[in-house]
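PROTOCOL LOG
Step 1. Enter all chains and additional molecules of the complex.
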Amino acid sequence: MLFEIISSIVLISTSPFTIDYLSPPEGEVLEVGGMGFMSDGDLVVSTRRGQVWRIKNPHAKNPKDAVFTLICEGLHEGMGLAVVDDAIFIAQRGELSKLIDLDGDEICDEVQTITQDWGMSGNYHEFGFGLPVDEEGNMYVSLNVGFWNPHWWHGKSRAPYRGWVLKISPDGIVEPFAGGFRSPAGMGLLENDTLLVTDNQGDWMPVCPVYAVKKNGFYGHPASLRWYDDQPDIEPSDTQPPHISREHPALWLPYQWSRSTGNVILDNTDGPFNGQYMIAELTNGQILRASFETIDGVMQGACWLAHQRVGSAYHIEYGPDGTLYAGITNRGWGGLAPGSGIARVKYNGQLPLEMTDAHLLEDGFVITFSKPLSNAPTVVGEKYDYNWWWEYGSPKQNIESLHIQNVSLSDDGRRATVSISNLEAGTCVMLILKNATSHDGSQLLHDELSYTINKMPGGDLAYVAKQVIPPIERGERVEGWLYLTWADAFDVWTNDGVIACNAELDINSPQQFVIADGSNALVAEAGKSMRTNFKTDAGKIKLSYMLAEDARAEILLPNGGSVVLSDDDNGGYLGAGIWHELIISFSNNPRLIDAVEINAVRMIADQPISNQLATPMPLTIRGTTGSFAFGDVRLQHFAEEVDHATWKPIKYDSEHFITDEATWNITDSGDLVVQGTGSVHIPSQIEPRNAIRFDTKINGTGNATIQFGDLEIDVATSGNRKTGGITGHPINANLIDQNEWCTIEVIQNETTTVLLNGIEIISEKYAPTLQGDIVISTMNSEVFLRGVSVR
Amino acid sequence: MKYKTILLMCIASFYGCSEPTQEQSIKPEKPTVQSGEEIYMMYCASCHGQQGDGKGLIELDRPARSFIDGGFSFGNTVEAIVKTTRSGIPGTPMPPFAEILTNDEIIRVVKHVRQFAPTLKEVLPKDTEMLVRERPSVVRGMIPPIQDGLELHPRGLLVGNPDGFSYEYRVDDVRLLAIRQGKFVERTDWTDRGGSPLKPLGVVVVLVENGNPKGMFHAIEGAPLRAKLKSTSVATPIGTVQYDLVDEKGELYATISETCRPTTGARALIEQQLSISAIKPFRITPPTTATLREKTTVEEGAHARTIIHATLEGK
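Step 2. Run joint prediction.
Step 3. Record the structure below.
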């Protein structure tokens, strides 16, 4: 396994880049959206709070010596800023504006509207970003699509040019430039003025891309197709891929490196990466580096990690002194601490050993280094592609090891030629260089290289993101997930010292978190734990977690297995203070840990469990060393086949329904849907029963109940009783997501037992009669019911 | 590899806790389907009174809510009252009804209760409030519907002046919607991911054409002219909104600088003052709720026009 090979090697190089942070005035929060420099070296920053700050002395040796002045406020977000001949331009959510200082006190007196010529429906997600300026003075604004409930995962373009990039001339004329974007949160310009646009992983964006944008190109997200002259003005299908040619991105950024990509800038400094491009990355709080090349007219390229642990970098700019400034914000989005402010990345002049370029050959790569190597490195690697589909992101698909035939070093030691026999167009490759040491003894600062191959030299173009048969629409099947920490995070757990709070890594003391009131995280210090009040045996667990430095934690699985999480981990583990996604599959017959994945990197597979503990057991999560934060714990039970011979379906006789203000209908597939506020009574003449099962789901802001005789079952994602609760035993945790089918089974003996998606969540000595009418009551909701059967 | 299966013998006690025993809950007998009013009379009226005025027959240490006065502890939407009815109010005689009534019954009784109540209450402002100090302040953002049935304006602005008056505009086609007095605005879009509407805090003293005014400007031959936002200024003691009047083809008719201020007369009037530089003649049709002091036709050249709004209740 690839990552087993690398895990034994330890890097000892130190970075010649140092990071510090400017100090905004006490009480001010700078959620940076845009940055630029005045001719006198002052830094100007626009923020998500609609403020503009001018910062004198931003390059001061002591960051506390930089002086902040608020020069404008009251703007409708400032997600882009440009300085042109010392005039400040701001991309607001709905307007491109110029700030005017009439009396020379540097404070804005007037906000001039350059243009408002793009659509807004009022949806929260319709951010507008900017603001590159080309040689001719044209400015570029990029526009998000909107997200509407309940199908929020399908981005929509409900006003002109949502999902497009606009080119705005100096006199304010708006030209729709290109579309097919989803959340194009960052832009940039190549040296030749070609526009670069980054997008964010989600529907139709398998991972975050960097596009070199052509006029009228289509970049993959179908919602905005309706605004192309040659396309019908209708809302395109949410799930079916359109039959239209897509442009290829120059880069697909590896998911473990970038989850929310910001802007791209040219490195024009005297540092080691002159002529390359730097890319801001918010979630992982780091900066990537890229170099592009054109193969037979098609742009593609390589990228590397450049600067880690910067904070949630949304927008980066180089200052006149060559310092890289990172504007930080992550409010509502999440990302590495710090979550606001301005970071400075300074180079101390000690040339590091890094890969500085990668050039694709017909049978491999030529990789250039910042200084000569003493010997040819060892190279391993893999290739993979992605699915282009409506689902939120795509895992890597078709992963294959690269067949590396030979690695040779040029006479001057500056270039390694890596021969690979199985490169192909339409894949991304990840190469890892080992034992790369320069003559002066330094080791590679970053040993991984990702390259996007749209085209092999002389070969055909191929999409890395492959069109596939669309997956079944969400909500059309029972997914089986229980969300164990939504709403009341402790309701289905026995808690031994875990606290709900907001947590981020303390950058001054990284072995601990800064804790604040809130509910973004569950924090388990060493020895603290929580365990589920129910037991299960086989299934899948998904959770997010973050470790402080040197921390460890343990997941004790319901089948007796255990997974240890440590800050020393490799593979998909990125480091302290970063949130990771963990997925564990486990089974009980035989008892195995089927798989553990961290950030989609497979860490272990098919690991037998050697102990003899009696199963099923609860799921336990506990901190063992240092500080451990986790959240969004989900559990999926691997269900057994339903024995349909023993269950008798109840058929609806809709002629006898009695409605009280609620409305109802039966869909083509036979689902009963009750909407509004009121109830529907379904007379029922079924013989005595002691078990009922059905599938249900709910949409809307309200809640509902389904009553069988005297037993009332809650179906809700809001309010104080959630799906799965029954009379006398409410559930406060939001175990089922809105618009997600779930299966509820109620079994009655002397006790009443409720199984939600196959997991026993309630067992209580309370046995109301299940005989009588079925009554579906709803308040401001749309509740679905299907497959009601009794036993 | 850090991930390994370990023997769990040492933590077996961890799992050893017994399940807490569940107490049996008793559900009272329920009659068949009743109307909201019947349920109210049976369960609520003894404390809250038959008319919902809080004057029930039972004497309580703390008097029950008068629904007529809009007295709801946790909000007065149907949703909020259902929640309160289900869970009760701890520390008061208000019991939880979740065990006694079905959801359906609670919804019906709440609908009945809701009929007693007047209009919706304001939510308390948080720490995202913006203030107007010695300089006017212009705040751009989404303007929420001023009253039920009106639209949200994705592009809007508020001009707040130091005298405590603020002016609410839509700016896709610049139109004064309302005039407020008191606190300025809460920026709800500073919380979570943002993208939510502004929350103007002042009391509405003028609602221009019920908050949904038609465009005021027309070419002489009748075609509507759009007021295209040109700038906002806080350089002067009161905030200024400037816009161009353009026709469908984008042809410029005039540039107008607009300021609003209350007069000092006995009956409070607000003047919306237009300083006009016209290239082509056009007509002004004042809102139906206001009057234009001068003539409606504006010739080429520099002109002034004043639209007068009377405040509600002559405050």
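Step 4. Note key features.
Chain B touches chain A through 67 residues (CB under 8 Å).
The longest strand of chain B covers residues 252-262.
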